Amino acid sequence: MKILADTHTHSMASGHAYSTIQENIRAAAEKGLKLIALTDHAPAMQNTTSHAYFANLHVIPEELFGVRVLKGVELNIIDFEGTLDLDEQTLSRLDISIASLHTPCISSGTKEENTRACICAMENPLVDILGHPGDPRYPMDFEEVFKVAKRTGTILEINNASLVPGGIRSGSDENIEQILRMSMKEDVPVVVSSDAHFYTGIGDIFYVERIMEKVGFPEDLVLNTDPQKLLYTIKRNKG
Questions:
Q1: Domain spans in the chain, listed from the N-terminal domain onward
Q2: DSSP-derived 3-state class of residue 12
Q3: How many C-beta neighbours within 10 Å does residue 106 have?
Q4: CA-to-CA distance for 153 and 169, rounded, in angstroms?
Q5: How large is the C-alpha radius of gyration of the chain?
Q6: Are 172 and 182 in contact (CB under 8 A)?
């Protein structure tokens, strides 16, 4: 599978990533990607950047090295009511937003609480993607999450970093398979992402490809294979 867009990447601004934005975009160009999303962690994450960082992302060109650059954020869901850690005015000016559960920002609750946190976040029209929903540290009702994602137009992410053996979200495989099978059954597209924290990982979906091959997931349901379709879907879902 050839992807042309990476929708989840981190730079040094996130506090625990190791490349500059320029290094990430150049790596995307060298790997033949046509689009990259800059999605550093929002302010609730430990040692990340401030609100001002996201408010000023507009200074970055829309294209560098022949790659379309989306200015975005990986938001932190910080309570079980789906509260996010960036204000709506700033979010409305960004091109793309991912909302995710992270252990430094919210402890795992019950299955019902974790599910409610994600559902409430997806109800926010400024959220485009639910990040790494397969994380086994946050058990949830995936059928309910999928149903709400379909209704709200929120795109579910299939995250390569979640599938790295021995990684912090190790054990995501079974949950991701469930999401992929529901997506196939309902003909609902997903995004795949590297979640790269160093430039060599930009565009890397090796583990995602393996699990998609296992379940027979069709390429035409992967939005990253067509940047224009991806952009259209995000714009349409924003209303």
A1: 5-238
A2: helix
A3: 20
A4: 25
A5: 16
A6: no
How far apart are the C-alpha atoms of 126 and 134, rounded to whole Å? 22
pLDDT of residue 167: 86
Q: Of the candidates 11, 12, 86, 10, which has an alpha carbon nearest to the alpha carbon of residue 54? A: 86
The CA-based angle 204-217-40, given to 5 degrees, is: 35
CA distances 79 to 5, 39, 154, Å, are 31, 21, 19
Interatomic CA distance for residues 135 and 145, integer angstroms: 13
E strand or H helix at 157, and its extent? strand 155-159
Q: What is the pTM of this model?
A: 0.97
Tens digit of pLDDT for each residue in 76-105?
Answer: 999 999 999 999 999 999 999 999 999 999
**CATH of 5-238 among 3.90.220.20, 2.40.30.170, 3.40.50.300, 3.20.20.140:** 3.20.20.140
CA–CA separation, 20 vs 34, rounded Å? 18
Cα–Cα–Cα angle for 115, 119, 120, nearest 5°? 120
Helix axes 173-186, 206-215, angle to 10 degrees: 60
Measured CA to CA, the distance from residue 214 to residue 121 in angstroms comes to 30
Which tens digits make up the pLDDT trace of 188-221? 999 999 999 999 999 999 999 999 999 999 999 9
Q: Which amino acid is residue 117, in one-letter code?
A: A
- For residue 238, name the pLDDT band (cuts at 50, 70, 90): low
Q: Taking a C-beta distance cutoff of 8 angstroms, is the pair 114, 82 a contact?
A: no
236 pLDDT tier (thresholds 50, 70, 90): confident
pLDDT reported for residue 114:
98
